[in-house]
């Protein structure tokens, strides 16, 4: 696991109209997946998808999650937003993009191959990274 970025202290919660002071800053974790850019032309090579010419980007829906996490941190006036991405070295670009949006820290969980197609394996690895 590779950590990237820089760190940022009492958060408040409004529940049922009452404001509760919770100990410590809020740490928000956002998982970011890298996906092919929608403008990429999919090409086949030897009966399978040729990914050599694919432009990879952060999933646009994950960008919404990053933006919301940043708004929450800003509203509270403190806390930390950490993005986590699982995949090969190319996912570092998605992490760098999230850091450029304002995330405080990025974590690259290295992984590649067929195991990334198994949802349970991916969930298990990401749950471990979240701890």
TrEMBL record:
InterPro entries: ETF_a/b_N (IPR014730), ETF_b (IPR012255), Rossmann-like_a/b/a_fold (IPR014729). Keywords: Electron transport, Transport. One of its GO terms (molecular function) is electron transfer activity. It holds the Pfam family ETF. Residues 1-20 are annotated as: Disordered. Residues 48-131 form the Electron transfer flavoprotein alpha/beta-subunit N-terminal domain. Residues 1-13 have a biased composition (Polar residues). SUPFAM superfamilies: Adenine nucleotide alpha hydrolases-like. Belongs to the ETF beta-subunit/FixA family. PANTHER family: ELECTRON TRANSFER FLAVOPROTEIN BETA-SUBUNIT (PTHR21294), ELECTRON TRANSFER FLAVOPROTEIN SUBUNIT BETA (PTHR21294:SF8). This is Electron transfer flavoprotein alpha/beta-subunit N-terminal domain-containing protein.
